[in-house]
Amino acid sequence: MSTATESKTVLKPLEDRVVVKPLEAEQTTASGLVIPDTAKEKPQEGEVLAVGPGRWDDEGENRIPLDVKVGDVVLYSKYGGTEVKYNNEDYLVLSARDLLAVVEK
């Protein structure tokens, strides 16, 4: 018998879409003041959890691969993508065009 915690469902994005787990924004200022939830800016940084196979080229013969891979930390446009809640977790499904940069550490 399988329980919900034993089975792990994976979100698989289509074409040139990417599933991102938004990273938490800073909750305190440099001087130590706590920022309330209502004043926080929407995060624009997240970790890539899944990458689609890429979109088809104009001839429809070859897939164009994406520039990101699972595990990358990316910056994305502020109002880009679609927010999705799945298994009580918040995710963001973005088109490759909404990705701005890969953060290298």
TrEMBL record:
- Could you give a GO molecular-function term held by this entry? unfolded protein binding
Please provide, in alphabetical order, the Gene Ontology terms of the cellular component aspect for this entry: cytoplasm
Q: Where on the tree of life does the source sit, at the highest rank?
A: Bacteria
- Localization, UniProt: Cytoplasm
Ordered alphabetically, the record's keywords are: Chaperone, Cytoplasm
Q: What is its main location?
A: cytoplasm
In the UniProt record, does the keyword Ion transport occur? no
Query: SMART domains recorded for this chain?
Result: Cpn10
Q: Indicate the quaternary assembly.
A: Heptamer of 7 subunits arranged in a ring. Interacts with the chaperonin GroEL.
- Similarity comment: family membership: Belongs to the GroES chaperonin family.
Function of the protein: Together with the chaperonin GroEL, plays an essential role in assisting protein folding. The GroEL-GroES system forms a nano-cage that allows encapsulation of the non-native substrate proteins and provides a physical environment optimized to promote and accelerate protein folding. GroES binds to the apical surface of the GroEL ring, thereby capping the opening of the GroEL channel.
> In its UniProt entry, what is this protein called?
Co-chaperonin GroES
Q: Which gene encodes it?
A: groES
